[in-house]
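FW: tagging you since you asked about this chain on Friday. Here's the raw sequence from the shared folder, copied in full. Didn't touch anything.
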Amino acid sequence: MHVAIAGNIGAGKTTLTQLLAKHYKWKPHYESVDENPYLDDFYTEMERWSFNLQIYFLNSRFRQILELKESAKKVIQDRTIYEDAHIFAPNLHAMGLMTNRDYTNYTSLFELMENLVTPPDILIYLRADISTLVNQIQKRGRDYENSISIDYLNRLNERYEAWISTYTKGKLLIINVNNLDFVENQEDLGTVIDKIDAEINGLF
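HL: got it, structure written out here
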């Protein structure tokens, strides 16, 4: 079984991935943020590094999916390949931070990869207001995220909502995280687990 968690920057994907992997004994697969050689440069000079960054994410996510395909284990994945293609790359293109040529090249590559990608059995979307995202981003204190603007987060949120409203690749569970604290409040985590249990039971 393959469960994936989607959501904007600061929505709590990695934290929830860790907690659910521990609870269900699933194998977690995380987004390769720390190893990404382009992130610092990207947030300093978005227009110069946007294509490089998105190709890196696409490559690492596709490699991850191929590994998941070969694994017989139950896995939970922090962010999906679809978010790169439907949220982040088109947003950079729309903002004028990725050229038409680069975006066409990127889209063509994603469409090729998508033919070989199996969607997750359950997609969990973490819905969050901008204030929640900003609080979470500030709390974790990553230097390269200091320059993320409210406008950028807002644009991403709008694209997430548009994508989720048309998502039909598998089961979808939407969790509003504005008033939830998975880490400090066991009841909140229990509420999320109950919702996931209901979706899992519906698969079999």
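FW: The longest strand covers residues 2-7.
HL: agreed, and The mean pLDDT is 91.
FW: great, closing this out.
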